Amino acid sequence: MTGILVLAGTPIGDISDAPPRLAAELAGADVVAAEDTRRLRRLTQALGVQTTGRVVSYFEGNEAARTPELVEALVGGARVLLVTDAGMPSVSDPGYRLVAAAVEKDIKVTAVPGPSAVLTALALSGLPVDRFCFEGFLPRKAGERLSRLREVTEERRTLVYFEAPHRLDDTLAAMAEVLGAQRRAAVCRELTKTYEEIKRGPLGELAAWAAEGVRGEITVVVEGAPDKGAEELDAAELVRRVQVREEAGERRKEAIAAVAAEARIPKRDVFDAVVAAKNAARTTP
Known about the structure:
The protein is an alpha/beta fold. The chain contains 11 helices and 10 strands. The strands form 2 sheets. It has a 5-stranded parallel sheet with strand order 3-2-4-1-5, with helices on both faces. The chain has a 5-stranded mixed sheet with strand order 6-7-10-8-9, sandwiched between helices.
């Protein structure tokens, strides 16, 4: 008989949030694959449990090379437990390759549900939670980051991102530029830890706040695009939407047509707004 792959959620901060089944799985697994074996050691000590199986590292740098070894163990009947530093494996953490490989071999995959920074931040944000999408980490390079954000300009679902603290100010500034400085958002820092902080406000204000420096694990929740009718879109907003599309590579004519369709207004109205903005820019000293 083949083995079983168990994805186990681990605390994102407070160790007392560990799922009750986690200790039993750590003690009983034949193989424990951990993103960081040192963190695993601290986790087992905090839970008062000893691993009896083989412990191996499984992180971004060796994920591709180690996956076949773990699949071989699964095919041989082993119970393999996968844990990452915090939260659920494979959600912006190692794990996807192993799950996909196990599924391909018809190996059973199950999970020990646990804390999730995505859902915790979403619930605490104060923003709509009925529909959302998780966007992971944005690209590090400024141009690629802006391009990715332009893809979600008209996304109406609430957006959730992970970000490193030293890039947070640049990311929020880019979000304010592309999505609008008045778009509501929440920066969730150090969730469930001693210095947990939820900073809510418009993207423009949050970008200015982050420029002073922020520390800790960061999750950013951003309000989705509003469902605006024609009467709610002023000329400045029409021009901004055209500019966003042009910067993404669309020709002006195509951008104007697309914006007009979204706003359910004549293309001529959008064209006039763009021309007026262009003339105003020329006459501004």
